[in-house]
Amino acid sequence: MFELVVNGAFEAAHRLVDYPGKCNRLHGHSWTVEMSVIGNKLDKIGMVADFKTLKAMLMEVLDDMDHQYLNELEAFKEINPTAENLAQYIYNTLKQNEIFNGTVKLNYIKVWESPKSAVIYREDV
Ligand SMILES: Nc1nc2c(c(=O)[nH]1)N=C([C@H](O)[C@H](O)COP(=O)(O)OP(=O)(O)OP(=O)(O)O)CN2
Ligand SMILES: [Zn+2]
């Protein structure tokens, strides 16, 4: 089994509704997002998937959130843009990509809200 990991980043503003503290107020983060995919088949040039393809897929999702006020996006109108909800949203959006219809599987999405705090989302098996 091989596990491939690529990273992307975006900057945005958010606030956490009903949060009992300063994160209730509008503020920003530089989020780092890690995507892990797994597979056990190599193609004829020895790759599970091209890092370049994986990074482009990840950045397509992150670019839609870059320099946005996340609470105003459709995905976060009813739920808080916490690291947990961001990770699940990014995972579910990426999962729709046809690359995951074959032997390559999306393993997890890890969202770093700061260098000290991160959330991993993966599906139950
Ligand atoms: N489980 C989660 N906890 C918190 C989240 C979250 O998404 N999931 N988010 C926040 C806020 O977004 C907040 O901006 C971050 O808070 P905090 O980690 O306290 O950030 P600081 O920069 O103030 O961290 P220090 O380590 O205290 O410097 C809060 N919690
Ligand atoms: Zn925050």
From TrEMBL:
GO BP annotation list: tRNA queuosine(34) biosynthetic process
InterPro entries: 6-PTP_synth/QueD, 6-PTP_synth/QueD_sf
Cofactor note: Binds 1 zinc ion per subunit.
Cofactor(s) it depends on: Zn(2+)
Reactions catalysed: 7,8-dihydroneopterin 3'-triphosphate + H2O = 6-carboxy-5,6,7,8-tetrahydropterin + triphosphate + acetaldehyde + 2 H(+)
Active site: 23 (proton acceptor), 67 (charge relay system), 113 (charge relay system)
Protein name listed in UniProt: 6-carboxy-5,6,7,8-tetrahydropterin synthase
Source organism (scientific name): Megamonas hypermegale
